[in-house]
Design a protein that fits this description.
Structural class: alpha/beta
Number of domains: 2
CATH architecture of the largest domain: 3-Layer(aba) Sandwich
Number of helices: 17
Helix content: 40-55%
Low-confidence stretches: 197-201, 229-236
CATH topology of the largest domain: Rossmann fold
Largest sheet: 5 strands, parallel
Oligomer: single chain
CATH class of the largest domain: Alpha Beta
């Protein structure tokens, strides 16, 4: 559809000046800057825009919008920030004739850039010779407040657009120099590529140095980001599909009041072998493969029962899946092997550690459904599986391998896990880092630390 006007929804220090420059390079575009900035109108030194001064604009902001959209034959627009007139934001989000351009930037970069601009007083730079530089002291609490406010603002905008059935053009600071993306934006606005001309203004990137060179206390930044990663694991949208609960794999004991809610894992398979042996030794006939109806009968007939799930360390889990789907010719996945070779530099003649690294690198995008291969139950997150199982039978206990004997008095010792020793000879700090990135949510939800040789 065609639009009557556009709005750039952004924050300070996200590159909105540069985006305005790029849009101004197209004939038929009139951009009026920060038209609803509470401290000025349009540009810092402007006294009025389209016959409105600050007082008149504040009295009736929608009247200014009306004049702007009917003033000439161009496509007009402006930049609107989080602290600008909320009446205008509400109107624009509700108006399908308004083209929404949502500009984002990494919040840490924009936060630091904002602090530097406040210190130097330089908010826009056209001449590199006039660049002002400064280092700031990073305040983790201020950054956290800033980040939360930005995220709330973006979330509110997204929800308003969803509820009204509208869409927007999303663009990031790092994409502002991409001519193809700018051409796509022009197409979204209904502009022609042939209308491109010389930009009216030429803003220059400020503070193009590394983040470490912009702050006096880089370690405080690192500590803040590490803490934020754990929070992000809970806040980040989860795209991993929910697996079926897999009740056919559950093991119900008959002599012992135990029900193993079996996860799809090699460790759980070995646990079932051990558990059924314990139940038989106690005179029972353990069953595996019960229907949900059978499970309900078992639960009703055994007061004091313990339904449990058994976790395995994410690194061991990934290694089990790697061996089964990549190394074992009997169970390997040809499609996965081909993908790892073509996109993740995996080759059969590489050493085991390097091949494992390729698999771990693949896991992170795969669990976000960003690869051509679906999520396999053998390597899917345990969080997703436990959540699925809980919809059928909520576990009373969540255990690790070495905790199994605590369920049964006078039980026989646990057998060694065959692959644990092999993993210990392969695992490197790089593997630990990669598995933390792939299974952030499992690490947070279950409190895993680095792998030390136990399941």
């Amino acid at each position: 559809m065609s639009f009557d006007y556009f709005v750039i929804l952004a924050d300070m220090r996200t590159g909105s000046n540069l985006l305005e420059d790029r849009l101004s390079a197209f004939k038929g575009v009139s951009s009026y800057g920060e038209l609803f900035n509470p401290h000025f109108i349009g540009r810092p030194k402007a006294e009025s825009v389209l016959g409105f001064d600050v007082r008149a604009r504040n009295a009736d902001p929608l009247a200014l919008l009306g004049v702007m959209t009917t003033s000439d034959e161009t496509l007009p627009g402006f930049r609107l920030f989080r602290d600008h007139d909320p009446r205008v934001l509400a109107h624009c989000l509700d108006d399908p004739r308004c083209a929404k351009i949502i500009l984002t930037r990494n919040t840490l970069d924009s936060f630091v850039s904002l602090q530097i601009a406040r210190r130097t007083g330089q908010w826009w730079m056209g001449d590199i010779k006039k660049a002002r530089t400064a280092k700031i002291r990073f305040d983790a609490e201020d950054y956290s407040d800033y980040r939360d406010a930005v995220n709330r603002y973006r979330q509110d905008i997204r929800q308003q657009l969803q509820m009204s059935g509208q869409t927007a053009f999303f663009i990031d600071y790092d994409e502002l120099g991409d001519d193809k993306i700018i051409a796509g934006l022009a197409g979204f606005l209904g502009l022609s590529k042939s209308d491109k001309s010389t930009p009216k203004r030429h803003g220059r990137p400020q503070n193009p140095t590394s983040l470490r060179d912009k702050v006096t206390n880089p370690r405080a930044v690192e500590g803040s980001l590490k803490a934020q990663i754990d929070l992000d694991a809970d806040e980040r949208p989860e795209f991993e599909p929910s697996p079926p609960p897999g009740t056919k794999g559950f093991v119900a004991c008959t002599a012992l009041p135990l029900l193993h809610l079996t996860l799809a894992s090699e460790t759980a398979r070995h646990a079932n072998t051990w558990l059924m042996a314990q139940d038989r030794a106690a005179g029972g006939s353990p069953r595996q493969g019960s229907s949900q109806r059978d499970l309900r009968k078992w639960l009703r007939s055994r007061q004091g029962h313990i339904a449990f799930v058994l976790l395995e360390h994410p690194l061991l889990r990934a290694f089990h899946a790697f061996v089964a789907t990549v190394l074992d010719p009997q169970t390997e996945s040809p499609d996965l092997v081909k993908l790892l070779a073509s996109e993740y530099d995996d080759t059969p003649d590489a050493d085991l550690g390097a091949r494992f690294s390729s698999f771990l690198t693949f896991l992170e995008p795969n669990l976000k459904t960003q690869t051509s291969i679906g999520v396999d139950r053998r390597w899917g997150s345990q969080t997703a599986q436990v959540q699925s199982i809980s919809s059928v039978v909520p576990p009373r206990r969540v255990l690790e391998w070495h905790e199994l004997p605590s369920l049964i008095a006078n039980s026989t010792p646990l057998p060694p896990l065959p692959s644990a020793a092999r993993l210990e000879n392969v695992a490197t700090p790089e593997h630990h880092e990669l598995v933390r990135r792939a299974y952030r949510r499992d690490f947070m939800m279950f409190g895993f630390s680095d792998y030390t040789g136990s399941a």
